[in-house]
Design goal:
23 helices; globular; alpha+beta; 584 residues; three-stranded antiparallel β-sheet; 15 strands
Length: 584
């Protein structure tokens, strides 16, 4: 029910809220079972406080409508298909290995007094759910019992308090001053001594020998190999990977174009909107339903990369999808519609999605401020970082927030000309993954997509010059947060250089001293050093950091320590293991 109501921006409840114009972003709600009592919620961000009753009425109007008119059978099938697919796919979740993700399913059951094993036996319940969900009144009963007639309900309004942060600081200072004045001199000196004792404790080397450790000789020096076979399908390069995928087909179409000093910024930035729009002969509601019913997810997006063989930068437009074998041909047809026949005429829908992005832009910048800082500082040395900074970094956010309805023609023309330039037979390469039987099936059906591609470019996107002749400078980007995200970048070497592996290990070797100076002593939430051989940059950064100058000094101290050789063979081995751990 939650998937049908709020599973995507085209779902009925989310769609109704967005089309109301009462807010520009959806509240992060839906159905949440992470508490001892589950919660269902819906709402809007970026609203006027006095519109709360209208928003509440809108939510209940949708629930009453669904309750009395029922749900479309295709939407029910699409929602159950999503559940079936997610239960079958072998993948980690946000960096958590698949084995742990699997155990969490059972753990949630066990913590609530249920049977651990039942959390793993999803398939046997999906069949029952499919049968129950199509019975008349099934969802009507759910909505009435848990939503409409549930008195345990709250309408929450979070409103900004002008001057609130300043008042908090004043209150904190008053409280501290009052407390300080209540202390005797002996009590003050005792606190000072406690601070010194803490600093001494934080500066000591910890004895980690008591911890279980992997030894470097336990790790194979041979990398894992994935069998890749190159085949030619009607003149198109296809890279075939045979792997056990639990009955799931994976297909990716990559379109590549080398770039020099100019780039189509609008095309790269906004092409990701396409999966939220209509495609082919379907509007965005029907396209969204097809994505959920026929696939385990489709994505399209542009990025910048570097060709190791030529040393030149390139634009990559990647269209990827995954599905159950029975839906392969339909998925490839849908992928073709999205990339080749997108609906760019529905300006209201495009404006809704852009407003949604605007609503989340500032919070996301705060959440990933270290990455924003890394892009900003790296752009002085690397064209790829300059592009990313202007697409998804702070400059990209600034451009997004300035975008007005009058600019929509620039957005749509940028997407259209970019697709016309990129999506052709000369630029495409294909990757497919599955077991041998699945790959054979996909090879036979790839023409569903490739036969629709033309020879040669038929688009001329507007190009923006990459200003790599500017002098690097220190700068600050201001956000509404109490903490900083500090980054310092150094131009280094690229992947093919013999120093690249050493710098990779060095970045891991620096993490412990950075942790001690910046997190343990400085109070930051995190500290990282990162060598990226693709962009040829070495970056040091902090996360949710109460300091700025102090952290920059800490960067210099860590570098000086490395230069003096403040490490031993054991620490180098740990760093190598850390690098391999991230790769795995």
């Amino acid at each position: 029910l939650d998937t049908v109501l709020t599973g995507s921006s085209s779902s009925i409840l989310n769609r109704t809220l967005m089309e109301s114009g009462l807010g520009s972003g959806l509240a992060p709600a839906g159905f949440d079972t992470n508490f001892s009592e589950s919660i269902f919620g819906a709402g809007l961000n970026d609203t006027d406080e006095e519109d709360a009753p209208k928003i509440e009425k809108l939510i209940f109007d949708v629930l009453h409508k669904v309750c009395h008119e029922g749900l479309e059978e295709s939407e029910i099938h699409a929602a159950i298909h999503e559940m079936e697919f997610s239960s079958r796919e072998i993948k980690g979740d946000h960096g958590v290995p698949f084995g742990l993700s699997l155990s969490f399913r059972g753990l949630k059951m066990m913590l609530e007094g249920g049977d651990f094993e039942l959390g793993l036996k999803i398939d046997q319940y999906l069949g029952q759910l499919r049968e129950d969900a199509l019975k008349p009144g099934f969802f009507k009963e759910l909505i009435e019992k848990y939503l409409l007639n549930n008195s345990h309900r709250i309408t929450m309004i979070l409103a900004p308090n002008p001057g609130g942060m300043e008042q908090q600081e004043t209150d904190r200072r008053t409280k501290l001053d009052t407390y300080r004045n209540s202390l005797s001199e002996d009590e003050v000196q005792k606190i000072v001594q406690q601070g010194k004792d803490l600093l001494h404790h934080q500066s000591k080397d910890e004895d980690t020998s008591c911890l279980p450790q992997i030894k470097i000789e336990e790790i194979s020096v041979q990398p894992d190999t994935i069998t890749q076979e190159e085949v030619n399908v009607s003149g198109t390069q296809v890279f075939k990977h045979s792997l056990p995928t639990n009955g799931i087909n994976y297909a990716s179409f990559g379109f590549h174009k080398e770039i020099t000093d100019v780039v189509p910024l609008n095309g790269i930035k906004y092409v990701g909107l396409l999966t939220e729009l209509g495609a082919g002969d379907s509007d965005y509601i029907e396209t969204g339903r097809k994505i959920r019913e026929l696939t385990g997810g489709l994505s399209i997006g542009a990025s910048v990369d570097r060709n190791i063989k030529t040393g030149k930068n390139r634009i990559d437009l990647k269209l990827s999808g995954r599905c159950l074998p029975r839906n392969t041909n339909a998925m490839l047809q849908l992928m073709g519609d999205i990339a080749l026949k997108p609906d760019l005429e529905n300006k209201n829908r495009i404006l809704e999605i852009i407003n949604l992005q605007k609503a989340y832009a500032a919070p996301m910048a705060s959440y990933s401020g270290h990455q924003m800082a890394s892009l900003a500082v790296g752009r002085w040395f690397c064209p790829m970082r300059w592009i990313s900074h202007n697409v998804s970094g702070m400059e990209g956010i600034r451009r997004l927030l300035k975008l007005s309805p009058a600019d929509l023609d620039k957005v749509t023309s940028g997407i259209s000309s970019f697709l016309g330039d990129m999506c052709n037979l000369e630029r495409v390469k294909v990757g497919i993954t599955g077991d041998d039987k699945l790959n054979t099936q996909m090879l036979g059906e790839l023409k569903t997509f490739t036969s629709r591609l033309t020879s040669g470019s038929n688009g001329s996107p507007k190009l923006v010059r990459i200003p790599m002749d500017e002098t690097p400078e220190m700068e600050a980007w201001v956000l509404s947060t109490d903490v900083s995200y500090v980054a310092k970048a150094f131009p280094a070497v690229h992947t093919e250089h013999p120093d690249a592996p050493t710098l990779t290990v060095l970045s891991a070797l620096m993490e412990r001293p950075m942790y001690e100076l910046i997190r343990a002593q400085g109070g930051a939430y995190g500290a990282f050093s990162q060598f990226n051989s693709t962009s040829g940059l070495f970056v040091m950064m902090t996360y949710r950091d109460p300091h700025t100058a102090q952290s920059l000094d800490a960067f210099d101290k860590v570098i000086a320590g490395m230069a003096k050789g403040d490490f031993n063979r054991e620490k180098i081995d740990h760093a190598i293991i850390n690098v391999i751990s991230h790769m795995d």
